[in-house]
């Protein structure tokens, strides 16, 4: 029988585990919908799409406005322009303001608290342009609107007094708009933490059981009123909403058979990494994250035209604004809620066009055919007849060109399909919107702990086994990897260094990280797995990300430095080296530790700005780790010879020690010669 090596078995097991993880990830972010009755449901929603100005509604979304009294006054100025020119020209039936209405950051941009003056700016702008008489303004809280707010009844919860909906709807709510015989429902999901801590531990939202019950009641109300379409909106993406109740946000939205889309903000396009963060959730609805107003000045135009949901994201100040509603983009077609038959049997292409001046030209062409002019029907609607059967197979490209009387022009391109041909969503958008960020943060934290602690414990076990004669002593001579394994082995024999470096990260899993004023004047306790404050428990989420950052910026680099420092100290004592070092050599030797230490000092300072002096003093995560780092580094530099007794006995054979000594003696001779040459010059 063929002998199978341990390496091969290990590789096979690793491949199996990796394959399982990848399969789980692919299953998680797959956009394949599970409802097998899609065709039956779509067939009941076939509409006669022609050239009439009916069965049509359009509305806007704006998110992450971040009105600030300290930064970027143009946010406020251009928000005024949006409330004036954009709303006057587009005349939306509804505007969804999906959270982070104010910035709530202190002047140093690290601390956080509610500023009433920021809320006054928000309220006064809406009043100045008489927004509530022009449209239905539906605003909802974001995490910034909830920084340092103990509850919705707190005097610091300015959303209640200064927003449009806050007084009547402090949390989740529903509004309905009726146009003709069609009822459109808009359901706002408030997943803000209660209590709402200061930043940074206020990044992920939670639906508790009372809020789950309230949303279920809203779904029942939708059914009772005979609503035709539902637009769900909130601040947090579903990937950033935990649930301490019986149902999660995705299952709740899935329960609504008329739910077309969930629109949100919060992620700010991940700093531009994912500018178009869209996906189709398995529950049969679109999820669309909108880029922020704060830095990117984005807003979204959406429309439901004869049952087809369409949208386009627009940068403020760019005109004309163009939205093709029939045929709709193949990427966003939802077979569970929409019908290709409606498009296939339609008689007209339909386009919504808006500009600061009167529209002069609206043209369309399909698959590089000649341009066709559209005629104006009413308001922003332009149409032209077409033979849909001509394009029934496969994906087709379509372009729309719009020009106003002052020469502003815009061309929009997309692909449509009348036979259900699919276009795939990008990988990064699916990861951002279909995953669970809390699970990702937890996985990163636990993985960093395992990667860090396991080698230390394994080497400690081997040392113990070799001491007991259970394992033959290995030889670690040769390449760089073996050299570092040997250095790690030496560190594991020095208990006064080994145990602090093992026990501290284990403490991060179970022990409190800090005690301080977490919300307003309420003292709380922060753990990796959650926060206790004012009798409430906030489950861990961003705390895991914080712990992961601590591991990769402090614990792991510090341990690498200590491994090398302890090994150097061992060589000094073994070879009786007492040579003085130059200032340059001392700087080079201590620079890595200084860099790691300074980074931790900066992070501790930022934690102090965020949570105050008490949290800084009673802070094992940040402040006490500085004491630990300084203590173990000083100890490593001044270890006595007796600490290396076990290392001398077991870590090296006599030949290895002799070889090491010869190498170091040669290095010292070369350095001595170099010094003589330098003095002679």
From TrEMBL:
Keyword Nucleotidyltransferase recorded: no
Designated name of the protein: Calcineurin-like phosphoesterase domain-containing protein
Superkingdom of source: Eukaryota
GO MF, one example: hydrolase activity
Record Pfam families: Ig_TMM62, Metallophos, TMEM62_C
Organism whose genome encodes this protein: Dendroctonus ponderosae
Keywords of this entry: Membrane, Transmembrane, Transmembrane helix
Domain TMEM62 C-terminal residues, every copy: 439-569
Boundaries of every Calcineurin-like phosphoesterase domain copy: 58-269
Segments traversing the membrane: 440-458, 506-532, 544-566, 587-608, 614-636
């Amino acid at each position: 029988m063929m002998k199978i090596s341990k390496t091969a078995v290990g590789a096979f097991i690793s491949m199996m585990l990796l394959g399982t993880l990848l399969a789980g990830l692919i299953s998680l972010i797959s956009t394949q919908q599970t409802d097998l009755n899609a065709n039956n449901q779509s067939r009941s929603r076939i509409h006669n799409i022609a050239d009439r100005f009916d069965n049509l509604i359009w509305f806007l979304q704006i998110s992450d406005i971040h009105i600030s009294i300290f930064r970027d006054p143009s946010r406020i100025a251009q928000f005024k322009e949006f409330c004036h020119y954009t709303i006057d020209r587009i005349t939306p039936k509804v505007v969804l303001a999906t959270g982070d209405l104010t910035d709530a950051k202190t002047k140093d941009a690290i601390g956080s608290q509610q500023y009433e003056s920021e809320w006054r700016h928000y309220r006064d702008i809406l009043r100045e342009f008489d927004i509530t008489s022009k449209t239905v303004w539906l605003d909802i809280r974001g995490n910034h609107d909830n920084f340092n707010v103990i509850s919705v009844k707190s005097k610091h919860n300015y959303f209640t007094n200064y927003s449009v909906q806050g007084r009547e709807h402090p949390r989740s709510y529903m509004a309905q708009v009726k146009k003709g015989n069609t009822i459109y429902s808009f359901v706002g999901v408030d997943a803000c933490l209660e209590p709402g801590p200061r930043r940074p531990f206020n990044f992920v939202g939670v639906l508790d059981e009372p809020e789950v019950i309230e949303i279920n009641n809203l779904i029942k109300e939708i059914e009772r009123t005979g609503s035709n379409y539902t637009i769900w909106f909130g601040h947090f993406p579903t990937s950033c909403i935990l649930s301490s109740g019986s149902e999660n946000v995705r299952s709740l939205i899935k329960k609504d058979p008329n739910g077309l889309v969930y629109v949100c903000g919060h992620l700010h396009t991940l700093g531009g990494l994912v500018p178009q963060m869209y996906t189709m959730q398995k529950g049969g609805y679109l999820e669309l994250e909108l880029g922020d107003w704060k830095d990117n000045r984005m807003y979204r135009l959406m429309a439901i035209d004869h049952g087809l949901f369409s949208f386009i994201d627009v940068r403020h100040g760019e005109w004309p604004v163009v939205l093709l509603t029939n045929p709709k983009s193949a990427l966003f077609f939802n077979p569970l809620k929409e019908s290709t038959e409606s498009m296939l049997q339609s008689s007209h292409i339909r386009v919504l066009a808006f500009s600061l001046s009167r529209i002069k030209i609206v043209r369309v062409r399909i698959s590089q055919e000649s341009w066709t002019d559209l005629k104006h029907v009413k308001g922003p609607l332009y149409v032209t007849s077409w033979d849909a059967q001509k394009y029934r197979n496969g994906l087709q490209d379509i372009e729309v060109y719009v020009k106003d009387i002052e020469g502003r022009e815009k061309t929009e391109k997309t692909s449509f399909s009348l036979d259900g041909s699919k276009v795939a969503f990008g990988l990064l958008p699916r990861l951002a919107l279909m995953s669970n960020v809390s699970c990702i943060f937890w996985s990163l934290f636990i993985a960093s702990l395992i990667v860090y602690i396991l080698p230390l414990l394994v080497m400690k076990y081997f040392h113990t086994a070799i001491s007991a004669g259970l394992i033959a002593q290995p030889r670690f001579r040769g390449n760089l990897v073996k050299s570092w394994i040997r250095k790690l082995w030496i560190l594991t024999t020095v208990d006064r260094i080994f145990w602090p470096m093992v026990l501290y990260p284990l403490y991060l899993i179970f022990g409190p990280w800090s005690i301080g004023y977490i919300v307003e004047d309420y003292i709380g306790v922060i753990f990796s797995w959650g926060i206790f404050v004012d009798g409430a428990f906030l489950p861990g989420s961003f705390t895991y990300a914080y712990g992961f950052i601590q591991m990769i910026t402090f614990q792991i680099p510090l341990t690498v430095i200590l491994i090398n420092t302890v090994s150097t100290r061992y060589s000094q004592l073994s070879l009786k080296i007492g040579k003085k070092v130059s200032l340059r050599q001392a700087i080079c030797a201590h620079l890595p530790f200084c860099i790691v230490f300074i980074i931790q000092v900066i992070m501790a300072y930022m934690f102090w700005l965020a949570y105050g002096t008490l949290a800084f003093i009673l802070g094992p995560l940040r402040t006490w780790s500085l004491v630990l780092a300084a203590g173990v580094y000083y100890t490593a530099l001044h270890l006595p010879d007796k600490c290396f007794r076990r290392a001398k006995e077991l870590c090296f054979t006599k030949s290895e020690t002799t070889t090491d000594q010869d190498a170091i003696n040669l290095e010292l001779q070369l350095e001595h010669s170099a010094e003589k040459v330098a003095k002679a010059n």
